[in-house]
Design brief:
Strand content: 15-25%
Number of strands: 5
Strand order of the largest sheet: 1-2-3
Helix content: 55-70%
Distance between the termini: 29 Å
Largest sheet: 3 strands, antiparallel
Number of helices: 4
Structural class: alpha+beta
Length: 150
Amino acid sequence: MFYLTAIMVFITDQLTKFLVVRFFTPNQSIPLIGNFIHLTYVQNQGAAFGILYGKQSFLVYTGIALIVLIMYFYYKTSSSPIMKTALGLVIGGSLGNIFDRIVRHYVVDFIDFRVWPVFNIADMMIDIGVALLIYLLIFKSEGKDASDPA
């Protein structure tokens, strides 16, 4: 479950980025659903919200450290299927963005809600994976409901 999730996220992320790079020019934008969502090709040389602009080496090393930490956590815990999926989402998304930073020297972003910074599939999967991890850590304890005193 873990590896399959990570591989599928990575492939989906890279395929969508390939299509954007192939068919869009930088900063080109087209409405997808009215004025609600656009496809906008952005070459992001920073991290979330454009912070750490131009710090590609730092971002690559930080991403690799995150992957190593997650792999350590994965192998040291007896994870539930949801935990494995969550970790796979984070790993796959992290690999997608690290790949971009190494190969392109920027991350391809293209999902644009106009009220939030432009992002990509990898970013979404990392966010969903982290949300699942937070849920599991707060509400689950060794497969039991955290409110269960037994």
